[in-house]
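cron nightly-structures :: item 1 of 1
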Amino acid sequence: MSLLLATAVAGVAAVLAWRWRRRTLRLCVLAVTTVPVLFLVVVVTGEVVPDLVLRAATITVATVVLSVLTALLWTRGLPQLVSRRDRSGVAVVCAALSAMYAAVAAFLLVAADDTASVADAEVLVDRDQFVASRDAPARQAGVLLQGTLRGPTGSPVVAAHGCVTVGTHRLLLPGGRFPDRYLVDFPGGPPVVVAGISSGSQAWEWPADGTGECVLRTGDPVVVWGHLRGAMGGGATSYTGLADVRIVAVGDADTFLASFRPAAERTGRMVVVLAGVNGALAVAVAVAGVHTCRRLTRTGTDDPPRITWRSGPR
């Protein structure tokens, strides 16, 4: 359902962009609002992976900026060019914009694929599996370490982040308390040192405490998604620990995968739609450049070019 809505939003935006192709202000407003609307549609219609949403939102800031520049170029720049000598400038500008759109699309696809790789992560539930994974070639998808959280003495709450539940949706709030590292008790061996997370977007299914926070407590069963790395601990703790931690979840591995994978697939489809939008914009800019170059070839004058690559008087 959300994928259909997101596709419909993208389609409506495309139709409006064509109808307003000569309206600078309207095109700029459309460029600024379309991406937030796409995110809003997906977030309010089902479960999402906040970490992937945040990464995609950061990447698509570039889409908004590029779209505003494209709107200005389309409505103010290209129509005013009349010299044949501007063809090379048009080709360079349009090729650069098209390449940047394509790069944004690629980054979005990588982000979606990276989150979907949780399905390929190796689940470690005891020391024998831990040692075998440590001694085997590293997996690109990483591992899911299942254990029990050990907290500092006298403090039942190990970490917390702001959250509020609205209906069936849990919304993240700014702020949080996150240690630099965690200790996870692991069956059959010493505790494993786990690198800390830095945002509530990397927390999954932490219980709400009723005061506007979702908390991680000593003794909670946890699943940590990260990569095995040596020199993380030593002495009373395992020498090999978990670095590059993506998610810290409460529960066991089966419960985590049962809830996280569908949300990752759903969010990933939305990110793929965004990548497709950027790909379409890359093609549109390239076509606009070709069309302008052909127009200047047919009807252009021999006046000095308006696009120059040097400062000072022409």
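cron nightly-structures :: done
The chain has a mean pLDDT of 88.
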